Amino acid sequence: MQRRFSRRRSAIHGYGVFALRPLHVGERLLEYRGRRLDQAEVSARFGQSAISGHTFLFSLNARYHIDGSDGGNLARWINHSCDPNCEAMIYVDINGDERRDRVYIQALRAIDIGEELSFDYAIELSVVPQDAMRAAWQCGCGAPCCRGSMLAG
Ligand SMILES: [Zn+2]
After folding, report:
1. 43 CA distance to ligand 1 centroid (A)?
2. How far apart are the CA of 85 and the centre of ligand 1, in A?
3. What spacing in Å lies between the alpha carbon of 139 and ligand 1's midpoint?
4. pTM to 2 decimals?
5. Tens of pLDDT, residues 38-50
6. Which CATH code, of 3.40.50.170, 3.40.50.720, 2.60.40.3500, 2.170.270.10, is assigned to 13-136?
7. How far is the CA of 143 from the centre of ligand 1 (A)?
8. How far is the CA of 2 from the centre of ligand 1 (A)?
9. How far is the CA of 5 from the centre of ligand 1 (A)?
């Protein structure tokens, strides 16, 4: 099968993931892969930087995070946008094993060749963010509706 995506420099931030062929609404694009870490493991590995905006952690459910820097794939390079063309869908494990829940990035609308993929991170922090933390999560997506932050709400 033809490759659907490539990673290259992004106007939003660092690297991004770009479509190599047209993608259709609802198309399942990439699983967000990586090691599952519980809260204690996240604290042990990352300490304060876990909430700094400089990790590849994806909040999977109440117990687990996915660490895209460990066993991850291209999905970890997808940037945040306040006007995204993709969404992150969580597929709950049928046997209720929270460690086995999965995340798939799906197209929210039709995406053209060369368009950068994005989804709304809508980060929920476990603490009330201070100014320095807000700055770390500042958004540069450039959308007219940009809320200025990757944090939820
Ligand atoms: Zn934005």
Report:
1. 28
2. 13
3. 5
4. 0.91
5. 999 999 998 877 6
6. 2.170.270.10
7. 6
8. 31
9. 22
Alpha helices in 1-153 (DSSP H): 39-46, 131-136
What is the per-residue burial (b if ≥16 Cβ within 10 Å, else e) of 87-99? ebeeeeeeeeeee
Amino acid 1: pLDDT: 57
Q: By C-alpha distance, which of 33, 26, 10 is closest to 114?
A: 10
pLDDT computed for residue 50 by the predictor = 67
Cα–Cα distance, 2 to 70 (Å, whole number): 26
The ranges assigned to domains in the chain are: 13-136
d(CA 146, CA 143): 5
